[in-house]
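Input set for joint prediction.
Command: fold jointly, output tokens.
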Amino acid sequence: MANAGLRFVCNRFLRGRFAKIQPAVLGGQAACTQDGTAWQKRFYVAVPEEAPIKVKGIELSGRPLYLDMQSTTPVDPRVLDAMMPYLTDMFGNPHSRTHLYGWEVEDAIEIARKEVADLIGSNPKEVIFTSGATESNNIAIKGIANFYKSKKRHLITTQTDHKCVLDSCRALQQEGWDITYLPVQENGIIDLKELEAAIREDTVLVSVMAVNNEIGVIQPLKEIGQLCRSRKVFFHTDAAQAVGKIAIDVDDMNIDCMSISGHKLYGPKGIGAIYVRRRPRVRIVAQMNGGGQERGMRSGTLPTALVVGFGAACKVAQEEMVADRKHIERLSKMLYEGITSKIEHVYMNGDKDRRYPGNVNLSFAHVEGESLLMGLKDIAVSSGSACTSASLEPSYVLRALGKDDEQAHSSIRFGIGRFTTEEEVERAVDLAVQHVTRLREMSPLWEMVQEGIDLKTIQWSQH
Amino acid sequence: MSAPTAVQAKSLFRALLREGKRFQHYNVREYTLRRARESFRQYQNADEALAAEAFTKGKQDFELTKRQVLLYNTYHHSTPSVMELKQS
Ligand SMILES: Cc1ncc(COP(=O)(O)O)c(C=O)c1O
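tokens >
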């Protein structure tokens, strides 16, 4: 039985990887332990003969090291621990008012609401649970515009905001709204004077993301908030990449509306929140009609386990913020310096200082991004065609920074987080250096650069 | 709630490390061990109230780690992380 089971495991997952292992070892006691600890430990020492897994035509020797924390983060074990009871015993509908099943989960939800509120310095009543930042952004933009449409008809956002903000704005444009898409400077940060000049009598909302998902730059939230308040315009910020990573205080920053996502701060996917200020009051038209949950702003039965997990993630983020920050800053520096000290013509995209260090977006001049990504198959990272990875379109964010298509295509975003290890960063540096060097050696362009023909270089070093 | 003796603190620390090492998941294991070491270092010379608080939290973390080791290892992916393969 042990052998049959093992053969199945071998065939199913490991292909010929352990071809060299002696049958004596395979047949041994360790091979059939239920949790797999023992046999895995033993087999790590075996040198793989060939790649054990093949996914989408790519052979991988193991699960790649994960450096794509802007895309999503793993669920923290403390979060999972908080969620489990609500996936087992406590399955009640939090809106059931007539029995224990409803009451116990309603309490859990209110605790989670407070945990979210505490992290952003708001009142729990101002926190509305949604399915994530995409939904929150839609509610904020369409909801506010719809409510104030009799008096206002202008909105401001930036060219580097997230697709879901830009698309919500496009939808309003179709309904006759005027939208200003503010450009950003070369460092990815908006010019406050341009923002001020763009605000009109009929402007209802300014929506500027807090931390950019592709390049990690932090917009001057406090200054934007002050400006908006003084001009009596609402300020919404998409803080999906910011909350839990950098300090956010909605009162201090005069934020009227804010989008948060659970899965960017080590919580589960499919949950998030929108902060909606009560004083001065922000009114929105609900985008989801139904049972009137969440003060009528977002109908639908709340997913208790996800809400509890999201709350736990916020609590952990608050407790761990200093430790996370220290760890991430150290690894970020190690990654950047490790790569730039070994290869030349590597540029960081976005402002060097006003940034969240867990996002390191680098352009490797004179290499082709897709080839580099293929070379780095042992690392899970995103390229300059980031978010909409399905397309090979160069990133609109990098374009907005004034980068040409080649720079955008040769860019890679390394995302470092709470669970990233020093060894992973060291490995990433080694692999990046090795593959960039290899690709450049194959490139006739690089040869020209080495010979001092600098027609391309002039253009590319304008940073 | 009183502050732990040095022996109690050390024994909890060792138990946490022992339990954390059982995570088969590379990143979760390394994180658990790193944070255990960092916090014990951080509270080593803390005053009584802080040390007592950290000790209580540490005991909760230990119980949580025991539960999560079970859960994570039950659903652990059979393909190892590249970080656990010998570099060729
Ligand atoms: C800045 C930003 N806004 C919004 C989103 C979407 O968040 P969610 O997946 O929670 O809908 C993301 C993540 O992809 C993001 O990075």
